[in-house]
Amino acid sequence: MALFLRGLCLLAGYLFGGFLTAEVVARCTAGVSARDIGTGNPGMANIATHLGKKAGLLVLAGDVIKTAAACWFCHQLAPELGLTALLYGGLGAVLGHNWPIWYKGRGGKGVAVTCAWLMLYLPVTGVLCCLAGGVAVLLTGYLPVGAVLIAALAVPVGWLQYGTEAGAVLALNAVIMVTRHWAGLQRIHRGEELQFFRPKL
């Protein structure tokens, strides 16, 4: 039964995560699909860069809300799982955001969704992981570095707080994050990646 509930939370999270906020914002703001804007990634950074900060904030807000809704729904769906319901609901939201079946698997990279999930599942330490990732972006100027660092830091944190299962699920998420940002990491290595949010010294 416990395994079934975990699967149910994963599926529910996937359904919530598959709602691409960037797609809605792009169509309402510019009348085109998010895939026709900039890099084609339906995420906050791409939308903010090409449609403005307000549009980017709307995408961020939508991604946070859908992740929170997924976690809340899963907690209501399987209260006997406790925080484990959030663990699987959040992972499902990441999977749905990254590979939504109704958009032919062409989703975002899951950074905002992952951050929202970690802050809900690991209220204090998850926030610290996200702050560390933000600092990494400010210092390097590279978004992929911060994204991968956030997910990687959450693995030992989750394992120490909640045990092996949490560590394993968060490790899977870290692998997903590296996979989604692998092209960007390679561009960084070649010196071709664009730098964002780097303060002038």
UniProtKB/TrEMBL annotation:
<keyword id="KW-0812">Transmembrane</keyword>
<protein>
    <recommendedName>
        <fullName>Glycerol-3-phosphate acyltransferase</fullName>
        <ecNumber>2.3.1.275</ecNumber>
    </recommendedName>
</protein>
<keyword id="KW-1133">Transmembrane helix</keyword>
<dbReference type="GO" id="GO:0008654">
    <property type="term" value="P:phospholipid biosynthetic process"/>
</dbReference>
<keyword id="KW-1208">Phospholipid metabolism</keyword>
<comment type="pathway">
    <text>Lipid metabolism; phospholipid metabolism.</text>
</comment>
<feature type="transmembrane region" description="Helical">
    <location>
        <begin position="85"/>
        <end position="103"/>
    </location>
</feature>
<keyword id="KW-0472">Membrane</keyword>
<keyword id="KW-0012">Acyltransferase</keyword>
<dbReference type="Pfam" id="PF02660">
    <property type="entry name" value="G3P_acyltransf"/>
</dbReference>
<comment type="subunit">
    <text>Probably interacts with PlsX.</text>
</comment>
<comment type="similarity">
    <text>Belongs to the PlsY family.</text>
</comment>
<dbReference type="GO" id="GO:0005886">
    <property type="term" value="C:plasma membrane"/>
</dbReference>
<dbReference type="GO" id="GO:0043772">
    <property type="term" value="F:acyl-phosphate glycerol-3-phosphate acyltransferase activity"/>
</dbReference>
<keyword id="KW-0808">Transferase</keyword>
<keyword id="KW-0444">Lipid biosynthesis</keyword>
<feature type="transmembrane region" description="Helical">
    <location>
        <begin position="115"/>
        <end position="139"/>
    </location>
</feature>
<dbReference type="InterPro" id="IPR003811">
    <property type="entry name" value="G3P_acylTferase_PlsY"/>
</dbReference>
<keyword id="KW-0594">Phospholipid biosynthesis</keyword>
<feature type="transmembrane region" description="Helical">
    <location>
        <begin position="159"/>
        <end position="178"/>
    </location>
</feature>
<keyword id="KW-1003">Cell membrane</keyword>
<comment type="function">
    <text>Catalyzes the transfer of an acyl group from acyl-phosphate (acyl-PO(4)) to glycerol-3-phosphate (G3P) to form lysophosphatidic acid (LPA). This enzyme utilizes acyl-phosphate as fatty acyl donor, but not acyl-CoA or acyl-ACP.</text>
</comment>
<keyword id="KW-0443">Lipid metabolism</keyword>
